[in-house]
Design brief:
single chain, alpha+beta, Beta-Lactamase, 3 domains, five-stranded antiparallel sheet, 10 strands
C-alpha cells in the first residue's frame, strides 16, 4: 500500500513539474485535473474541479476548443495548434502551442482529454526579430552594393585622371602651381576613399553582429543539437541536449561522441554518423529510436544526422527532437 501511495505521489509530482500547462477533462467534459502552471495561466483553482468545461473561459479563449476536442476523439489521435495568440488582462499578448490528446483505456473506451499548453512567446519573438534582422541585412547588402558601384565609378574616374596626367605630364612639369593644385585634389579623393573604406568596415561589423545573433537563435531551438568533428569529437552541445541527457556542454565538449554514457543510443548512431563523414554523402540521415532521458524516462526521439561540409567533409551535426506520444 505504501508503494502505491509513493507511486501516486511520484505521478502527481511529475504532473505538477511538467514544463507545460496541463488541463485534463473527464469523459463527461468536466474539469478533472489541472497542474499549477495551468492554474496560474488560466486562473483555475481546486474549486473548479468538476465544473463543465463549457463554463470555463479556457474552453473558448484563446480558441474554441470544443470542436477541436471532438475532432481529436473522432480521429483518435492528438491534434496540435501552434502559436495561438492569447490576450492577457493587462492588454499584452502571448503565444501558446496547444496539443489536444484524447485519452483511452486499453479496451478503447474514452477516458477523457488532455490539453497541453506550451509557451511559444519567446520563439515567436525570436522569429519576429529574425525577420526584422533579415530586412536589415537586405538593406545593408543593398547599401554595400551601392557603395561598391560608387567605388567602381570612382576608380574609373581615377583611371581617367591618371591617363590625363600621363598625357599632360610635360605641361605639369612646366607648371608647378597647377601640379600642386591637382595633388590637393588627389589627396581629397584619397580621403573620400578612406571614408568609404571605413563605411565598408562598419557594414562588415554589422554583418558579423547579425551572424552572432543568428547563432544565438540556433542556441534557443527546442531541439537538441550536437556538432561533431571528423574524429567524432564533440565540438558543440546546446542547452536542449543538456536537458535531455543531463550532461552539460563543458562535460562533453572535447570527448568522443561514441564514448558518452547517456540515454541516447550512440552505438545505433555509429553507422549513420560514419556515412555522413563520407565525402560522397550529400543528404541527411533520419531515424527514430527509443531513448532514456536524464530522468530515466523512456522517450521516443527523431534523430537527424547531417554532414557538415567545407572543401571536404569536416564533421557532422545531430538534431534530436523528442516525439510526443
Amino acid at each position: 500500500m505504501r508503494a502505491i501511495e509513493r507511486l501516486l505521489e511520484l505521478q502527481r509530482a511529475a504532473f505538477e513539474g511538467t514544463p507545460v500547462a496541463v488541463v485534463v477533462l473527464d469523459a463527461n467534459m468536466r474539469l478533472a485535473l489541472v497542474n499549477a502552471r495551468a492554474a496560474t495561466m488560466f486562473g483555475l483553482s481546486g474549486n473548479d474541479t468538476g465544473r463543465p468545461f463549457e463554463e470555463l473561459e479556457i474552453s473558448h479563449r484563446p480558441v474554441d476548443l470544443r470542436s477541436i476536442i471532438d475532432r481529436a476523439h473522432k480521429e483518435r489521435r492528438m491534434t496540435s495548434l501552434r502559436k495561438l495568440q492569447r490576450m492577457l488582462p493587462s492588454g499584452d499578448h502571448t503565444y501558446v502551442d496547444l496539443d489536444v490528446t484524447p485519452l483511452f483505456a486499453p479496451d478503447g473506451t474514452a477516458l477523457g482529454t488532455q490539453l497541453s499548453f506550451g509557451d511559444a512567446t519567446q520563439t515567436q519573438t525570436l522569429m519576429d526579430e529574425l525577420q526584422r534582422m533579415s530586412v536589415a541585412l537586405d538593406a545593408a547588402r543593398e547599401e554595400i552594393r551601392s557603395t561598391s558601384a560608387d567605388l567602381e565609378t570612382t576608380n574609373e574616374e581615377l583611371q581617367s585622371t591618371v591617363e590625363e596626367l600621363e598625357t599632360t605630364n610635360e605641361e605639369l612639369q612646366s607648371t608647378n602651381e597647377e601640379l600642386e593644385t591637382m595633388n590637393e585634389e588627389l589627396q581629397s579623393t584619397n580621403e573620400e576613399l578612406q571614408t568609404m573604406n571605413q563605411e565598408l568596415r562598419e557594414r562588415g561589423e554589422e554583418l558579423n553582429h547579425a551572424n552572432s545573433f543568428l547563432g544565438t537563435i540556433l542556441a534557443t531551438l527546442r531541439s537538441g543539437v550536437a556538432v561533431l568533428d571528423a574524429e567524432l569529437v564533440v565540438k558543440a552541445w546546446n542547452r536542449q541536449m543538456e536537458e535531455l541527457w543531463g550532461l552539460r556542454a563543458s562535460e562533453v565538449e572535447g570527448k568522443h561522441f561514441l564514448n558518452l554514457d547517456i540515454g541516447l543510443p550512440v552505438d545505433t548512431l555509429r553507422g549513420p554518423v560514419r556515412l555522413c563523414l563520407n565525402p560522397d554523402r550529400a543528404d541527411a540521415i533520419e531515424l527514430v529510436t527509443d531513448c532514456t532521458n536524464r530522468r530515466g524516462k523512456t522517450i521516443r526521439c527523431r534523430i537527424t544526422v547531417s554532414p557538415l561540409r567545407a572543401a571536404t567533409v569536416s564533421g557532422a551535426m545531430l538534431i534530436v527532437e523528442e516525439l510526443k506520444s
